[in-house]
Every structure is written in C-alpha cells, then in structure tokens.
Amino acid sequence: MTKTDMVVVWGGANNVAKNESEKGLVHILNFVKQRKHTNVITVGAPKRHVLSTTSCVKSAVTTYNRKLHKRMKMSEYVQILDSEIQREHFTRHGLHMNTVGKELMAQRINGPYQKNLVSEEDTSHNFEMEAKSQRQWSGRS
Question: Residue 138 — pLDDT band, cuts 50, 70, 90?
C-alpha cells in the first residue's frame, strides 16, 4: 500500500466487552506500525447506550478510546475518528448501529478520505466504491 491508499480500522468493541481491550489495542497498533506509508483512519469503540452510567463495560469503552487516541496520535499517517453518535442511531439492544447510524459513520469516515484524493479519475472511482460500501452497510447489496 502507498501514501495515496486509505485503510479504516474499526475494532475493539468485542475486546472491551471480553475485558481484553489491551489485546485489541496491541493488534491495532501493530497493524498501523506495519503500514507506515499508508493513510489509516482508526475509529474508537462505540459506547453501550443501554448500560447504566456506572457499568464497568461503559467505563472500559471510555478507557479503551482514550488509550487508542493516545497511542495513535503519534503516527504521521493516522487519523482518529470518534464513533460517538446518538442513541437513536443504534438498534434496540444498543450495541449495533441501525441503518441511519451506519450511514452517518460512513459519511464521517469518507470525509477524511475525500481530502486525500489525487485526481478526478480517482474521485469517480471512490464515489462508486463509497456507494457500494454504503449499500453493503445498510444491507442493500
């Protein structure tokens, strides 16, 4: 991969829920280190909206996201994106995003990506890829 490529790394929710957040951070950090000349967007773990404010999982998500930001900000080619969106953008159980939440996050992810485009030819190709990605996220293949 090159400096014009973009990779989105969005992980950690399962690691946090299993009390293995440090393990998830190590994997993401190693992935980023191996791609020194590739643009990487890292997305934090989403908050669990249905849990009480005193939940250990909720505080673990906050700690995980803080550590992710701290470790990733040192890399020149990494952009950090917050996954914080409103409760209404999640399904009833509060962990997975609904269609509107997925579309919102796709737009947030695409913002930094569009800034790194090099030519009009690439732009038309990327818009096609974005449309396909959004259809897949929303279940409309």
Answer: low
Q: How far apart are CA 72 and CA 39, in angstroms?
A: 12
Note the pLDDT of residue 99.
93
What are the backbone dihedrals phi and psi of residue 25, each rounded to the nearest 5 degrees, phi first?
A: -65, -40
Q: Give the CATH architecture of domain 6-137.
A: 3-Layer(aba) Sandwich (3.40)
Q: Where exactly are the structural domains of the chain?
A: 6-137
Burial of 32 (0-12, 13-18, 19+ CB in 10 A): buried
> From residue 28, how far is each of 22, 37, 45 by CA, in Å?
10, 16, 12
Residue-wise pLDDT for 59-100, tens only, equals 888 888 899 889 888 777 888 888 888 888 888 877 788 999
Check: CB of residue 10 under 8 Å from CB of residue 111.
Answer: no
Are 69 and 80 a contacting pair, CB within 8 Å? yes
